[in-house]
Amino acid sequence: MLYRGKPKMLVLIGIISVFNCISGQTLESKWKGNPPRYICSVPGLPGPPGHPGSNGAAGPHGRIGLPGRDGRDGRKGEKGEKGDPGLRGKAGPAGKIGGRGDRGPVGKRGPNGTGGEKGFVGPAGPPGEKGDKGNRGIPGKPGICKCGSLVPKSAFSVGITTSYPVELTPIKFNKVLFNEGEHYNPNTGKFICAYPGIYYFSYDITLANKHLAIGLVQNGQYRIKTFDANTGNHDVASGSTVMYLNPEDEVWLEIFFTDQNGLFSDPSWADSLFSGFLLYADTNYLDALSEDYA
């Protein structure tokens, strides 16, 4: 019983092995994307040739060959036509002056020429000796003296009739004592220069009840400042200076500090005065004035 069944078992095992082999090859071919090929099948015809592959990398350069020989010179061409003349070149530098030759023999004297024109007067000779004193001449007519009219005049002296003027404005000295040339204006309190030159200015101010801070002003600029403190009694503040003025320059007195305007005036016994005058005029101005009169 055992013996008889053994051949059948072997046959069954062989069929199962062949089936597993065929089915395994089929599945493997499907996974790889290739058509199934069975071991036990007959080989097919060869497939078509594949596409040519890409070019390979370039090989190394070969050695540089020896230089070739120079070619033979060509034949000499025919002579061309004569060209146009070129531009004239610059003259060369002058040569050195040659040596002086020997003097030739003296020729015969020629005929006399005509007289030339009269020449210019020559320079003056040295002064001669002093001559004798001449006779006295006839007296001339008397001249007209204009000396006084050539002297510029400018002077003033003024007082004030009110007390405690406004600060930081020209003080109007309205009491005119002297005003040569009318160069001081009592309505504005300003002296206006008419003649350029050197001027002298001074002031004597009586103060009472307040301190006094007063200054001399030229064209808006303080030239001198004085300050006097009130001690309960009347006092006098004074100042003076010399300055150069041009025409149209303005000069005046002014209180330069607020509430320090103790200027006092009482016509019965006290005056506050402002004075000035021309010391001498500018020499250039005097020269021009003399030419105008001449």
From TrEMBL:
Its main location: secreted. It is found in: Secreted, Extracellular space, Extracellular matrix. Residues 149-285 form the C1q domain. One of its GO terms (cellular component) is collagen trimer. Residues 43-137 are annotated as: Disordered. This is C1q and TNF related 7. Residues 110-119 have a biased composition (Gly residues).
